[in-house]
Amino acid sequence: MQTESNLDFKPHLQLSHAVPNDPLVIRPIRAWSAINLRELWTFRELLYFLTWRDLKLRYKQTLLGATWVVMQPLMMTIIFTIFLGMVARVPSGGVPYPVFAYAGLLIWSFFSNSVSSSSASVVANGNLITKVYFPRLIIPLSAVCGRLVDFAVSSVILAGLLLYYRVPLTSRVIMFPVFVCLAMLLALGTGILFSGINVKYRDVSALLPVLIQLGMYVSPVIYPSTSVPAKWRMVYDLNPMAGILEGFRSSLFGGSLSPRALIASIATSLVLLIVSLFVFRRVEQGFADVI
Q1: Under 8 Å CB-to-CB from 40, ≥6 apart: which residues?
Q2: How confident is the model at residue 264 (pLDDT cuts 50, 70, 90)?
Q3: With contact defined as beta carbons under 8 Å apart, do 279 and 196 qualify?
Q4: 249 contacts 175 by C-beta, under 8 angstroms
Q5: Which among 278, 231, 249 is positioned nearest to 108, based on CA atoms?
Q6: Confidence (pTM)
Q7: What are the residue ranges spanned by the domains of the chain?
Q8: Which residues are CB-contacts of 125 (< 8 A; sequence separation ≥ 6)?
Q9: Which among 187, 207, 216, 210 is positioned nearest to 276, based on CA atoms?
Q10: pLDDT (tens digit per residue) in 72-125
Q11: Given a cut of 70, is residue 158 above it in pLDDT?
Q12: For position 82, what pLDDT does the model report?
């Protein structure tokens, strides 16, 4: 039979060392450390596999496969050539309109598809984010890298059009990769910014297609920037895609390029990328909780 003293016995646990007085709180990093290049380099294989995975999933169970990469700008080129090149007679600076339009649609499709894919990439990879740690920046970066592969495939058609219409290349062709990289920087900065905001505010997924569609018509994609009235050129050149599009065409066909538009494109791309990296770094701490 248990005695009263045994029933009243209660062991006293020493919990002072087991549980800290002040709980650990994860706070956003206040110092400027948005880019950890060493960490990104450590996870470079993950970047490769995520890029390859996106490419496989995008064209899985499709009849034409990667041919759809070429079909989008090519079909739009045919439509715009009929209605703008033949009917409306939109000037193309002495370049055959199909080549002119395809070049613009090629670089614009790369930019718009990169922004669309990267802005939705963090939410789409929510299961991965909540299970394992890796630099979250790799997710939107892999989305843009996948679209860069699409751009390389579509460029084969551009080369074929240049040969078919016998458009000679100039010495400016060495600037071709420069403007591609500039478009990539702008797309990456825009995509990173929207991907971080989209985690908390899903309105981005509904608003972004409208902004991209609007951006196509306020950029010299299917018309030359020389068609813009002189009194509006200063404001028009502030559009970063204006300088990229005209510079991209200039590297292929020659012609003039507004230094003001080029400076605006470079400045906007760099500033937007820096700001987006800082914002992304500040909000990524809460991705796992919100997603």
Answers
A1: 47, 135, 137, 138
A2: very high
A3: yes
A4: no
A5: 249
A6: 0.85
A7: 43-290
A8: 139
A9: 187
A10: 888 999 999 999 888 888 888 889 999 999 999 999 999 999 999 999 999 988
A11: yes
A12: 92
State both tokens at 32.
């400027």
Both tokens of 272, joined, read 């937007």
User: Tokens 């500040």, residue?
Assistant: 282
DSSP code of residue 35: -
Interval 42-69 mean pLDDT? 83
285 vs 281: CA distance, rounded Å: 8
Q: Where are the alpha helices (DSSP H) in the chain?
A: 4-7, 37-42, 44-58, 67-80, 97-124, 126-129, 138-164, 176-200, 203-217, 233-236, 240-253, 259-283, 287-290
Structure tokens at 248: 């991209």
Which pLDDT belongs to residue 63? 65
Burial class (CB in 10 A: 0-12, 13-18, 19+), 260: middle
- Under a CB-based contact definition with an 8 Å cutoff, are residues 261 and 242 in contact? yes
Q: At 277, list the tokens.
A: 């990296």
Q: Cα dihedral angle (85, 90, 92, 94), rounded to 10 degrees? A: 80
